[in-house]
Design brief:
Length: about 90
């Protein structure tokens, strides 16, 4: 099954929610990855930290919330995040 990704902004201009057509972790649970070291335990979070500009990742149900470093634009980060999600999720 191919993964479809819908991008939705949040109130925080540095955070975006990527909604998938696939459950990543059980609904009602969440996994926070505030840095690259903690993300080593999850293949998707680990891969997302390989995208230059990703500052933190949060997984909940079928959503991936990514916060970028303010020094980077979403134009430089968003497409690579979507590609990574489609490849790894």
């Amino acid at each position: 099954m191919s993964v479809n990704v819908k991008v939705e902004p949040t109130r925080n201009e540095d955070s975006v929610v990527f909604k998938l057509n696939k459950i990543l972790i059980p609904p009602g649970t969440g996994s926070s990855f505030p840095n690259r070291e903690i993300a080593q335990s999850n293949p998707l979070a680990k891969a997302l930290f390989e995208v230059r500009g990703v500052a933190s990742v949060w997984l909940i149900g079928s959503e991936v919330q990514v916060t970028k470093d303010p020094a980077f634009s979403w134009g430089a980060v968003k497409g690579k995040v979507v590609e990574t999600i489609k490849r790894v999720a």
